[in-house]
Amino acid sequence: MTVSERLFDPHGILEVAEDADLATIRRAFRRLAMRWHPDRNPDPDAAARFREIRAAFDWLTGDPAVDEAGDADDAFDDGAGAAQAAADRYDELELELAEAMLGCDKPFVIRRQRPCDVCDGSGSVALTHTRLCAVCHGSGKVRTTHGLEKCHICGGRGYVQRAECERCAGSGEIVADRTVNIHVGAGMLPGEVLRLKGLGHETASGATGTLFLTIRLAEDGLFRLAGRDILVTQPVSVLRLIAGGRLSIAAPLGPMLIDLEPGQVAGREMRLSGKGYPGRGGSLDDAGDLVVTLEASLPAALDDAQRRTLSRLEDQLQRDRAGHFPALDAWWQAYLASRR
Question: Matching CATH topology for 3-217 and 220-300?
């Protein structure tokens, strides 16, 4: 198949109707260019696909006479010299529980597009020597759905004096990482959003969008947030639960010593008022509670002396079973009554 017999369908490449207006063509180009940009798409065919998309866009929007004058760069602009609004960026900022409670300065990597520094955002560069047109391959003509037409990319000459920029693959933009320090105030809850002007995407004119960062808490193996209450389940010696006394309670910012009253063992819950997640700005007046479920832990690996000590204690308590073990005593009373 000769070059002139090759079918070049710019409308089909951009996935638009043949009567599509300029705004529709531009929107389609930007959508497909974002999808197939080599910096974004790891597909080995992405660069070739992107070049095809760019050629289709230039064909439908360019002037065949502008290549000689070197003005074809304007084909990538989103309007005839009009200022282009910069796009906003949306992302998440993951914090540890302690970072969110106290507030922090968190490094955050912004991966954003910026104008290519090689072609100044135009997508093309001037050539020292002319080059065969990549669309018509030097024939000056391309077969489209309307028949054989003069190539709009090279104006029918078969050669071009500009080529797509290799640095940005003709997109006019490159993906650049930038690390910034994000200040997070104390007490911000998951789902709340930081609004950071000037950290969104950037246009060739230098305009910048806004970065919207949604706060997200990293998974924590111990603590769970419920509103501003912090919930934790902590194992405690069954003997300490029975006897009471000084007890170290786990809290997100470090252990806390409390005086534990003697009492129930199973499912015991303690609510420490104001010791949970702080209010906005670190306010303690609006802080939640620290809710601790104490889980009884039985002693293990006892030696003979320890077992004898516990056995003596058991014997003492069993002498007043009704007073010390009312549930146990009631069970035996019911059992004996059923056997009479």
Answer: yes
| Distances 145 to 11, 12, 25 between C-alpha atoms, Å | 9, 10, 17
pLDDT band at 131 (very low <50, low <70, confident <90, very high): confident
Is residue 244 scored above 60 in pLDDT?
A: yes
DSSP state, residue 116? -
The three-point CA angle 211-85-20 to 5° equals 120
In whole angstroms, give the CA distance from residue 224 to residue 222.
7
Sorted by sequence, the CB contacts under 8 Å of residue 291 that are 6+ apart come out as 226, 229, 230, 231, 232, 269, 270, 271, 272, 276
Domain boundaries, the chain: 3-217, 220-300, 303-340
Distance CA(267)–CA(269), nearest Å, equals 6
Orientation of helix 22-36 relative to helix 46-61, angle to 10°: 170
How far is residue 128's CA from residue 133's CA, in Å, rounded to a whole number?
Answer: 15
Token pair, residue 144, equals 């489209």
Model confidence over 170-204: pLDDT tens digits? 778 787 788 999 999 999 999 999 999 988 877 76
* Residues 198, 210: Cα–Cα separation, whole Å: 5
Pick the CATH number of 3-217 from 2.30.40.10, 2.60.260.20, 3.40.470.10, 2.170.190.11: 2.60.260.20
Alpha helices per DSSP H over the chain:
10-14, 22-36, 46-61, 66-69, 97-102, 238-243, 304-318, 321-324, 326-338
SS (H, E, C) 289-303: CEEEEEEEECCCCCC
Spatial distance between the Cα atoms of 318 and 299, rounded to a whole number of angstroms? 20
- Characterize 147-180 residue by residue with b for buried, 16 or more Cβ atoms within 10 angstroms of its Cβ, and e for exposed: eebebbbbbbbbbbbbebbeebbbbbbbeeeeee
Q: What is the CATH topology of the domain spanning 220-300?
A: HSP40/DNAj peptide-binding domain (2.60.260)
Q: Which long-range contacts (CB under 8 A, 24 or more apart) does 19-22 make?
A: 22/61
